[in-house]
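Late entry, written up from scratch paper. The run itself happened at the end of the previous shift, but nothing got recorded in the book at the time, so transcribing now.
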Amino acid sequence: MLIYRVPSESSRARVAVWRQLKRLGGFYVQQAVCVLPDRGDLRERLARIRERIEELGGSSVFLTLREVEEDARVQFVEGFRSQSAKEYAEIVEECETKFFKEIEFERFRNNFTFEEAEEIRQDLEKLRRWLRKVEARDWMGADGRDDARRKVDECRRELEQFEAEVYERTVRETG
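Output as recorded:
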């Protein structure tokens, strides 16, 4: 558990610390009180965040919780699961509302270019990286992982089909 304070006049500093802790997968019990699993890789990164807090003129206390009341343990586990489930749902939403719509729009525009296909491939890589990050901090086995994996794979298949269409049209035009 990390309890910290940063100077109140710097909202940018507070947001920076919050963002770093969320990136680690931290679950906020309340403002400036964050819980993370006790893992070596997280401890190292947490030490760097604590250094950053100090650089910003703040302070922090790090506690290793050995005995946790059952109610609190359940709150922590459910909090971690809920965070990851929300992120999986956001990935699915991103696929449905942006990725698929982008390909649909390019087909509508009859924009079958290598450049467009490459741009969409970069979007797919962003989705894959995002999914890997969420999976890496999903310590409690949240709902939605399989759905997100299926949806990202569906994006891959849709892109491959679009790339085949681009290839066919390019060959026809240059052939």
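The first strand starts at residue 2 and ends at 5.
(Scratch paper discarded after transcription.)
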